[in-house]
């Protein structure tokens, strides 16, 4: 089962089941993650910056393509409520703009 490591959440590791979105896997593990629209792909607050393993993600969804075309989702970012991890591990981090105030974030070693 592929694993996501969230670097600036103290190297949090989350196993992602086949077909499961990153957001669903994070929530199943009891991890809070910003998602203002309720995980419906209508905003970009759940985005994750992918540091390693971008090739292991499933194809971009319609919502992600829409935000990319508008310049609101960079090439190394995915929406946690939309994307899946298929075939390998990945490392990412929470963007500064979407950090939750009640969580303690650690220093990232990559940008």
TrEMBL record:
Is this entry keyworded Transcription? no
Q: Which residues form a coiled coil?
A: none
What domain of life does the native source organism fall in? Bacteria
Q: Which UniProt keywords apply?
A: 2Fe-2S, Iron, Iron-sulfur, Metal-binding
What the entry lists under InterPro entries is as follows: 2Fe-2S_ferredoxin-like_sf (IPR036010), 2Fe-2S_ferredoxin-type (IPR001041), Adrenodoxin-like (IPR001055), Beta-grasp_dom_sf (IPR012675)
Query: Which Pfam family is one of those matched by this entry?
Result: Fer2
Q: Which residues form the 2Fe-2S ferredoxin-type domain?
A: 2-98
**Region described as Disordered:** 89-111
List the cofactors: [2Fe-2S] cluster
Q: Which SUPFAM superfamilies match?
A: 2Fe-2S ferredoxin-like (SSF54292)
Family listed: Belongs to the adrenodoxin/putidaredoxin family.
Name used for this protein in its record: 2Fe-2S ferredoxin-type domain-containing protein
Taxonomic lineage is:
Bacteria, Pseudomonadati, Bacteroidota, Cytophagia, Cytophagales
